[in-house]
Amino acid sequence: MRLTVRVPASTANLGSGFDCVGLAVDWFDELTLEVSRTGGLQIEVFGEGSHQVPRDESHLVIATLLHALRQWGVAPPGGLLLRTRNTIPHSRGLGSSAAAIVAGCALAHGIAFPDEELDRVELTRVASLLEGHPDNAGAAVWGGAILAWLDGERVELIRLRLVEGLRCLAFVPDLEVRTEGARAVLPDMVPRKDAVAQAVAAASLPLALEQRPDLLLSATRDRLHQFQRAELMPASWSLLRRLRRVGIPATISGAGPTVFAIGLEDQLAKADSLEHEGFQRHDLVPGEGVQLVD
Asked: Which of 1, 13, 220, 242 shows a CA-CA span of 20 to 30 A to 199?
């Protein structure tokens, strides 16, 4: 058996939607798995992370695949050869871990249920519980933009119908920021005025994405996590402020340090004239979810 899966990068939060709003973009990792009765485990990694990721069962894709098979009561095959072609940067806030987890779930589904379409509800559940929250995982499974949250072990997910013409920019620095470290600096309590402002912005974010892109600048305003992480990524914080100062709906992507902007073409046009030394710019659009391509 040979399976190939394409899984997208994603951005989480979009400013105010902390841990509950995610967006997939047209930036993909591609992974091929060859399954046999015997042969042990072999892993070949090309591209991003090729000098960092393990080549044993602790590799995130393989660990997830084995976990999902156990969840579904399926014995793992004796031989696995995994080839990954990674383009999503690691530890940059673009959902590389979620992409690996979703890919592992999709490959496991292909082994367990070879004649069935991907069960995206089940993939979302397993991936979200492993990831810890469903924003990146849900977006990587379904594509486009999602609003999602965990209710115990159940994932509640709403797919947003994005307004036509939305474009995205990702400014990616060389700096890496681990999610664990970025979460460690967040305070346990926030002032009431910040909580109220965040609630207003978060409530308006789905409306802005679906119908009112003119509201995106205010709807992506954040009081809970971006400023608190600024000391970990000062250049990203500076670029974010400069983009927003000229009216571009910019956010810190996930835990950072990538700076992400979303809007219509005319809303993003001013970014062309802004200096972004130290960052690689990527022009993107909302992307499709995980796909088994053969």
From this structure: 242
Give the residue among 37, 41, 45, 34 at the shortest CA–CA distance from 2: 34
Tokens of residue 275, six digits: 């200096």
E strand intervals along 208-249:
none
Kindly tell me if the per-residue pLDDT of 294 is higher than 80.
Answer: no
Residue type, 187: P
Q: Which residues contact 74 (CB under 8 A, 6 or more apart)?
A: 108, 111, 112
Q: Hunting for tokens 């340090």 — which residue is that? A: 257
3-state secondary structure of 199: helix
Indicate the residue type of 122: E
pLDDT tens across 194-233, in order?
Answer: 999 999 999 999 999 999 999 999 999 999 999 999 999 9
Tokens coding 202: 């978060």
Element (DSSP H or E) covering residue 82: strand 79-86
What number of residues does the chain have?
Answer: 294
Instruction: Output the pLDDT for position 39.
Output: 84
Angle (nearest 5°) at CA 223 between 202 and 147: 25
pLDDT of residue 182: 85
* Among the listed residues 276, 274, 236, 242, the one whose alpha carbon sits nearest the alpha carbon of residue 257: 236
Dihedrals φ, ψ of 172, to 5°? -110, 120
Strand-strand pairing, 2-13 and 259-263: unpaired
Q: Which residue has the tokens 């004796």?
A: 78
How far is residue 71's CA from residue 184's CA, in Å, rounded to a whole number?
Answer: 31
Strands 2-13 and 79-86: unpaired
Q: pLDDT digits over 248-288, tens only?
A: 999 999 999 999 999 999 999 999 999 999 999 999 999 99
